[in-house]
Amino acid sequence: MDGYLGIIVIVALVAVLAVGGLFLLFRPKAKDLPPVEAPPEPRAPGVEEPGKAGLGEQDGGTTTTLPPPAEELLKPPAIEVPPPSAGRMVRLRSRLARSQSALGKGLLELLSRDRLDDDVWDEIEEILITADVGVAPTRAMVEDLRTKVKVLGTRSPEEVRGMLREELLAQIAPDLDRTLHTRAHGERPAVVLVVGVNGTGKTTTTGKLARALIGDGNKVVLGAADTFRAAATDQLQTWGDRVGAAVVRGPEGGDPASVAFDAVAKGIEDKVDTVIVDTAGRLHTKTGLMDELGKVKRVIEKRAMVDEVLLVLDATTGQNGMRQAQVFAEVVNVTGIALTKLDGTAKGGIVISVQRELGVPVKLVGLGEGPDDLAPFDPEVFVDALLGD
Amino acid sequence: MFETLSDRLTSVFSSLRSKGRLSDADIDATCREIRIALLEADVALPVVKDFVARVKERARGAEVSQALNPAQQVVKIVNDELIEILGGETRRLRYAKTPPTVIMLAGLQGSGKTTLAGKLAKWLRDQGHAPLLVACDLQRPNAVQQLSVVAERAEVAVYAPEPGNGVGDPVAVARQSIDHARRQQYDVVIVDTAGRLGIDQELMRQAADIRDAISPDEVLFVVDAMIGQDAVTTAQAFMDGVGFDGVVLTKLDGDARGGAALSVRHVTGRPIMFASTGEKLADFDAFHPDRMAGRILDMGDILTLIEQAQKTFDEQEAAKMASKLVSGDGFTLDDFLEQMMMVRRMGPIKNLLGMMPGMGQMRDQLNQVDDRDLDRIAAIIRSMTPGERQDPKIINGSRRARIAGGSGVTVTEVSNLVVRFFEAQKMMKRMTQGMGIPGMPGGRKSQKAQKPKKGRRVSGDPRKAGQAKPGSGTGPEAVQPPKGVLGNLQLPPGFDPSKLNLPGQN
């Protein structure tokens, strides 16, 4: 233990020397990091024919696995043609309402009371806090509502509903640009990079997104740059096979940047519309892994522009979501958020702070495990679903 | 935004300066801050309410008014209470009298069940058991394969008769697996199930069916440390739907404060048995309630920092680093470079600095700190010749220009670094002569008397930190780092947090 105390001194020292010193200095003008070398030759395209999915995968060893049912996977899975994405949010509205109604109804009921005393306001505050909105934004919102109620004087249920709708909409910032940039520009395909911490549903979102894009008549290539987690590549391959998107994969434990590069190269070669690169989940506190992510993006930019960096956030995430968003935004400049698992009881209130603090709009919502349960985010529909009909 | 509880309490307590005891109003103010701290740590609201009420009651009791420093006492109560709730009843895995022992994992999607299955299996194998992993997640694409790979890495057996991806009946697989284990003489069976939502009736029933089919000795609820207010609803739904005997907290290696631990424990009464702290199979440990309490409260304490150091370095490395410091004069830029790289391994510098006591007041400056600054410093040092690193005194104008050119920075930056280095060297010399680092050779007690600030040492009160406004500090005597409630560790006195705040100073 004593030895570690020394470390604290060292941390302090480093702080004084390095950080303290720099406070004095003029910050060097965007002298950026040294250019990263392009990965070696794009290797013989690591693309496998759809249908070979999940084969040659670690059979044997110490396991008593029954032989993986290769035959079943061998026959090329029927490629489904998913329905177009338009109007999805509306179709999924009922599901959204299921999870959210408690929030909206509770608020509505409270605000419609005859007397709004401090207890009622406390309750309103609580409802917002339990939706993971966070303490500070909640206070701001309650303050706003209080003022409005005072100005309004009398309140009919319709008025209250309108007021609440307005307030919630304002929090969700409806004027942000929420279009997903997936249109190819000329020769080059659009590139979407999917990032996030572990277990938020990046691979699933990538799969669903590919499906939705193909349903809209685009051609898609998937890059399985999650070379870390066991069988993540196969998971993506399965998604790809289902909708008929080519999947570029690399060896397990390989360099994710090179896989991403290959995927983009293939996308350009095949003249597809969109390349979606799925990355490994990484906690934002792991400096090394975040650097790796930065490299993936830089390497992709050797061949094409990264049009969209989607941060996948789990709706159950609490206040830590803010930290995640901040760090990811610093490293790869997040352009949109995909909020997943919104079909549960979680309200995903954290996106309110994230949108406000970082100005990054929610672009997609995941509402279930079904392949078509991904919808573009529509603030109005979202708020209406919140409040119920 | 990211204030620690100690920062908040500092401001509350600064008004209590001379009071010998706490009035009700003081307790209320303290409790309000504690409430916010808990809410921001994602402890669920109903739990927070209960908890704060309990604390309030105890705080009004006699033990506080008689204590020497009542305000600190309140925080101590909170901490004790947290540890008590979190660790009230720690217990070990129950093994079945007649093998196989059956362990079932359940939880939301993406909480880390499959990875945990592998960790648990490895842990059991290291203890001399023969675990068998059973793939009952037939829902998510390639979950079965993931489990097989995990099993291979953990060098344990796996039972996966169904391909998954929606094919097969998990209940049947679970049932067969028990017979399989009996035949093959495995003594622990770990059943990995599909992730499911609490409100999904159908899947919950399926989980209950699996449970009935295998009558597990332990059902473990796997929950992500990052989960927010929803933890209560989810835990309750799983409690009602499947029932569980223990909780496993995953992804604790992030910086989420993990209030979920408290929520789940409070709502279901089930103990938290394990903590999973990384992506490698070995990153798995029993749960430590005391550390969790500190983390939830976010006292920003030094213990956390030490803990982080412990995770990153072994004792030897740490001792080596520390001994370099004691040598004072022998400290070169090379050593500094090495140390800087080691510190970087511990995580973002911003987080580390945030954990230093007394740093709360300069959170704004801290937010501007960037890890890339460290890289730049490293580049400067690496552009120096070995001779220059050994003895920076020889660095003259032309050498500076060369170094600046080599590292792509301005000459000013180089000179600033060198100047700061000399200052640090001086600081260290003072430290080693006057004080000694606690735990380093040299009697500490007698030396303490030499310091002018010894009088302050008595109280250890966070409000003291409030007195030392950033920028006002002109020397080491200006800031006395407050002692965290959690430990009486003292900062090596030579360290002066106010040094950090240079813009205001010079």
State the helical fraction of chain B.
Answer: 40-55%
- Cα-to-Cα separation, first versus last residue of chain A: 61 Å
Low-confidence stretches of chain A: 21-77
Structural class by secondary-structure content of chain A = alpha/beta
Proportion of residues in extended strands of chain B: 5-15%
Looking at CATH, the homologous superfamily of one domain in chain A is P-loop containing nucleotide triphosphate hydrolases
Largest sheet of chain B: 8 strands, mixed
The backbone outline of chain A, from C-alpha atoms, is: globular
Largest interface: A-B, 95 and 129 residues
Provide an overview of this structure.
The complex is a heterodimer of chains A (389) and B (506). By secondary structure, chain A is an alpha/beta fold. Chain A has a domain of 145 residues: P-loop containing nucleotide triphosphate hydrolases (Rossmann fold), CATH 3.40.50.300. Chain A contains 14 helices and eight strands. The longest helix of chain A is centred in the N-terminal third of the chain and has 23 residues. Chain A is globular. The termini of chain A are far apart. About 15% of the residues of chain A have low confidence. Chain B has 506 residues and is an alpha/beta fold. Helices cover 52% and strands 8% of the residues of chain B. Chain B is built from 24 helices and eight strands. Chain B is globular and about 80 Å long. Chains A and B meet through helix 1, helix 5, helix 9 and helix 12 of A and helix 2, helix 7, strand 3, helix 10 and helix 13 of B.
